[in-house]
Every structure is written in C-alpha cells, then in structure tokens.
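Researcher: Structure for this, please.
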Amino acid sequence: MGNRSSLLLQEEEIAQISEETGFNANQIERLYSRFTSLDRGDCGTLSREDFLRIPELAINPLGERIVNSFFQEDQSNDRVNFKQFMRVLAHFRPIKKNKENKLNSREEKLRYAFKMYDLDNDDLISKNELLAILHMMVGANISDEQLTSIAERTISEADEDGDQMISFEEFCKALQRTDVEQKMSIRFLN
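Model: Predicted structure, token format:
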C-alpha cells in the first residue's frame, strides 16, 4: 500500500506542492502515504469523520476546531483533497529564517490561531467565543465563574478600541512577545 500511494503522486504535483507549502519531496510523499491511509473510501479526499479517526485529534479538546480548519478554504465542500490538506499542515512547519514561505509565516500562524477562537467567522473574538474555547480546553476542571473571569480579563487586556471584542490586529499585538513560530510548529520527518 505504501508503494501505491507514492506512485499516484506525479513529480509535477510534488514540485508544485513543495513550492506552495515548503515541504520537501520526501515529506510530501510520507504525508501522502498518511493521507491515503486515512482515506478509507479510497476516493482521494478526506471527510471530517476520516480526520476524527486520528486518535490524537479524537481526544484533543479542540479536535473538532482543528478538523474544521481543514475545511475553511471551501466551506461548501465536506471533503478535503491532498493539496488542501498540505496547505493546512504547512501552517505548522517550523519557520526557516533564510527561507520565506507565506503559509507558515508568523502572521499566517497567528491568523490560523485566531480562526480557532473566531467561532462565527466574523473576524472578531467575542467574550462568548473565548468562553466556549476555554470551556472546550479545560472542561469542568475550572468553575464557570473562573472561566468568565479569565475571558473578561483577556478581553479587557487585548481590546484596545473598547468594543469588547478582539480583532485580529489586537490578537497579534497581545501575542507579540509570544514565540508563536515555535509554539505552532510540528517537526515533520524527512
């Protein structure tokens, strides 16, 4: 099965995906093999259910939000092809100082993180959205009063224009001292 998956990817496709995402050919072939192993229907695309069969996503409190991020490019479609899959994974590539790649730049990593909190996709994070995400992350380990206090304090510290919401610009500013490049990186084997 491992051989079959590498035969289906053409060299031109590998070169194009590499150019767009920054992954090298070996990484692309390995990720393609993983992609095809998740594709239970052998149709060349993945469904939300295919993603949720990944144990690490199934137990992650934000697993459903992470899975949804694969479908944000085309909200009308409930399937993701390999190129779309690779574009999302590219956000998690470590940043190489001497090589520019738009998909895993600091700004794109922040935009990806921001979208995790922006549940209604209105380009603002409200107190209720923040509360919902905090609730997903900590569950019943913290009281509702404590969660509300955390959400209110976060909004008040990040909200510069007084609208009780966090815009993308305010989000970036609040995280300016955070090493987002490191925290949002996964080491992909060569």
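Researcher: Any notable elements?
Model: The chain has twelve helices and four strands. Confidence is low (pLDDT under 50) at residues 1-7.
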